[in-house]
User: What shape does this take?
Amino acid sequence: MDWGMANRLSKIIRPKNGRCVMLAVDHGYFLGPTEKLEVPQKTIQPLLPHIDSIMLTRGVLRTSLPPISDVPIVLRVSGATSIIGNDLSNESIITSFEDAIRLNVSCLALSIFVGSKYEHQTLANLATLVDNGERYGIPILAVTAVGKEMVRDARYLGLASRIAGELGAHVVKTYYCENFEKVIEGCPVPVIIAGGKKLAKEKDVLELTFNAINDGASGVDMGRNIWQSDHPVAMLKAVRSIVHQGFTIQEASDLLVKEKKIEEINTVVVKENKI
Ligand code: 5RP
Assistant: This one.
């Protein structure tokens, strides 16, 4: 692997433990102003010190993250669909390599829709990105998007993840499922998990993270279960403790309780001082 590619990849997957805590805030690219991500800058800012990298679009990057930030950027470059449109799988590449390089990104992300009407188009998008990624030393993260008609099981997610790896993706993001170790086993590159819709209980998020790591995931690329929480910083720190420090679910729960109190005090201080 060339120096540039290895260097950028090391900013996504930490070389010291092969793990990754990525914050996903790209939801607006097809969902519009998602709950608690209405003003991205407000959502992102308190979370920045606790993440390894952030996944977002160029529009949110340019408007909501200061250029002096040293957090590695995972730029979403597929889209051009919307939640009210005809078919979410009909994605194109929406950002040029030239602009991605100008933005000094560490990784590019796109969705693939295996089994959908636009399967071929989205897989061809991946192949083209990988060609350019290899040319310029930028790793590619393939997101295995799951259409309404697909079942989120190890067979489907394993198929989609393997295809992404075969087409040259450097990292694959998928969903946790039963028999997740099969998905990991069949995928030749590191796999990270999305959080999905906000789960009912905080402990469910910790369990999801713990089980995924235990089954071989390299980390998380989590969004709603962090920033839709009433205590996003505390939740992020608890998830991080599992990924990077090997905390058990109980240890992470205890940390969450402690961090929630700290976050509440900090929120009051910020409000009172109008910081
Ligand atoms: C959408 C995405 C999101 O980044 C992904 O779903 C992660 O966010 P969440 O944890 O909220 O599911 O790639 O296609």
